[in-house]
Amino acid sequence: MPNVVILGVFVADTAYRADRQPKLGETILGNSFALGPGGKGSNQAVAAAMAAGDGPVDAHFITKLGEDPFAEMALDTWSRAGVKPAVSQHAESYTGAAYIFVEAATGNNAIIVAPGIAGTISPADIDARAELIASADVFITQLEQPMDAAMRALEIASAAGVTTVLNPAPAATLPDGMLALCDLVTPNESEAGALVGHPVVTVDDARRAAGLLREGGARAAIITLGEQGALYDDGTVSEHVPAFKAGPVVETTGAGDAFNGGLAVALAEGQDPVSAVRFGCATAGISVTRAGTAPSMPERAEIETLLARS
Questions:
Q1: Which CATH number goes with the domain that contains 166?
Q2: Which terminus of the chain faces fewer neighbouring Cβ atoms within 10 Å, N or C?
Q3: What is the count of structural domains for the chain?
């Protein structure tokens, strides 16, 4: 069976919806609060498992958890979504958590992540999962766990001929050689701008950024552009895929994770890259019509219905 393997972090999302963020020293009243599962890697694993549905692709997730109620939330979330966890639990630290401010009028967000025990994921932990990583058809990591762990996992996957995807979020300076291990790099506009040193606002900006990322070693780049969709560029093919409109935008927090999870499944199923980007955009387009991160991820039938009518 095709495998998608994802390395990353689980955090419990504490989401506060308000008209605006408070200033330092200020207290304001919020409109609502929600507690739910999150973390970029975990969200992507849930998105992949949901997008795979009853198809042949399995979604595996590598991380570390504490021994606490947030860990129980993680395991329950993955069980319900169909994620196959490759997880160790540790009593010496806590399962991660995130503060999410959601602007009531727009659904836009600002986030602080405290990864907890997942912040100790090491190259040795990755070596312990080397067989699973090397068995993948598609491997994805982000930058919420330590950089040396992400680098080691990409090395193992690349050496095994696995299709490697780096979602460089949150934005950070990448170590030398990391992009050369990536078949695809998938930043959003702000992350792409941070990586290449110029703002990315338009599709033309994205094309320029993609070229610079390829010059840095990536074999192809996908720049996600929010309501403008996404740009795929491999130096031969450069195609803009428009966003899918599935309804009013409620919250954008998990959109990038939905995109990457959907993209990974489509690639593992053998879809060409542009079709896989389209599948990812449809996955993201549905997710933003719902509150939350992992709970917003759509089922396979929903994605196929949106693709069919668009």
A1: 3.40.1190.20
A2: N
A3: 1
SS (H, E, C) 59-98: EEEEEEECCCHHHHHHHHHHHHHCCEEEEEECCCCCEEEE
State the pTM of this model. Answer: 0.93
Mean pLDDT of 285-293: 91
How far is the C-alpha of 8 from the C-alpha of 43, rounded, in Å? 9
Question: What is the share, in percent, of the chain residues with pLDDT greater than 70?
Answer: 100
Q: Residue 291: is its pLDDT beyond 90?
A: no
DSSP 250-277: ---TTHHHHHHHHHHHHHHTT--HHHHH
304 Cβ neighbours under 8 A, 6+ residues apart: none
Residues annotated as catalytic are: 257
Q: pLDDT (tens digit, 9 = 90+) per residue, 79-133?
A: 999 999 999 999 999 999 989 898 999 888 888 889 899 999 999 999 999 999 9
Longest dimension (CA), the chain: 54
Distance between CA atoms of residues 121 and 307, nearest Å:
37
Q: Does 303 reside within a domain?
A: yes
Between helix 273-287 and helix 255-268 the angle, nearest 10°, is: 140
Looking at residue 303, what DSSP letter applies? H
In a domain, 202, yes or no: yes
Which residues make Cβ contacts (< 8 Å) with residue 173, sequence separation at least 6? none
Token pair listed for 299: 């089922």
Tell me the HSE value of 82 on the side-chain side, using a 13 A CA sphere: 19
Asked if the structure places residue 265 within a domain, the reply is yes
Host domain of residue 130: 3-8+40-61+122-309
